[in-house]
Amino acid sequence: MQASSIIIDKNRCNGCGICAQVCPARAFTIVAEKAELSGSCTLACDHCAAACPQTAITVEFSEKEPFEFASFSAKPAENRAPVSPAALVNMMRARRSCRVYREKPIEREILEDLVKIGITAPSGTNSQKWTFSIIDSRSKMLAFGESIATYYKKLNRLAEFGWLRKLLKLCGQPQLDIYYREYYDSIKEAMIQWDEEKDDRLFHGAQAVILVGAEPGAGCPQEDALLATQNILLGAETFALGSCLIGFAVEALRRDKKIKERLKIPVDETIYAVIALGYPAISFQRPASRRKVAIRWM
Ligand SMILES: Cc1cc2nc3c(=O)[nH]c(=O)nc-3n(C[C@H](O)[C@H](O)[C@H](O)COP(=O)(O)O)c2cc1C
């Protein structure tokens, strides 16, 4: 993100130098007990303004997202509101992938707020080149699902050719063979259920999806998109919404350009996460168990 300008109010500034300490670009110098911009602001991270005890610094952006939410209020002053580790971890552990939803639409203002919660995430070099596309109509989700189903049906037909799997493997491309062994059967079954029983095995009957992607030019597009995604998953939890990442949709979008075309997503944009959302029909009584983690102390 580009800052259009940094304004220092010399009347307010008391030369404490905190702006110079926090600035990652070392762009401030204290001269005669006042802050001066002596270098260039490369990240537009806003840290100087956020840390200044005198509120003497303003970073202006051409387009700044207001810190406002439609479905709840959160003042910037509540920035440091303490959240206990227990409260945080309880919420995080309560999040489970939801695969049974109620037929209740999600309010648009909540979906928009989820995106705003998403963009509180960090991004490499503060590029913020993430993108968010929302589908909140079941008929459009099913049309999207149909394109994904077409992709997997084609892939399954290809994977049925044993000679092709062997040839690709010999050429150092074992992916089709791995797909055949690990996914072919379950995808085949899911496709039959999708076609014949109209069973939504892809989005599990969710009421909306958020596609999180990145425009070209970001240094760490995938990391940025996935960090925003995790924020959205946790944000969804606070609205009593269930969520599920749909990796099968991401893979199909990556491999079949036509799916992106149909969704009118620009060709040079990459989608890194598809998040299914809806009000859960089943609530989990116990938190997720995890395999024991091995920490390597260095
Ligand atoms: C990258 C990624 C892709 C996923 N793709 C799918 C998917 O396509 N369909 C699905 O039902 N679940 C999908 N999941 C959900 C995982 O199966 C789930 O997170 C895992 O089993 C742990 O369960 P929990 O989320 O309830 O803790 C995906 C999760 C991740 C992180």
Explain what the structure shows:
By secondary structure, the chain is an alpha+beta fold. The mean pLDDT is 94. The chain has two domains: 3-61, Alpha-Beta Plaits; 68-75 and 82-298, NADH Oxidase (3-Layer(aba) Sandwich). It contains eleven helices and eight strands. It has helices at 18-22, 47-51, 85-94, 108-118, 138-159, 162-170, 175-182, 184-196, 221-238, 247-255, 257-262, and strands at residues 3-8, 28-31, 34-37, 57-61, 130-135, 208-214, 242-245, 270-278. The strands form three sheets. It has a four-stranded antiparallel β-sheet, sandwiched between helices. Flavin mononucleotide binds next to strand 7 and helix 10. Residues 96-97, 99, 244-248, 288 line the site of flavin mononucleotide.
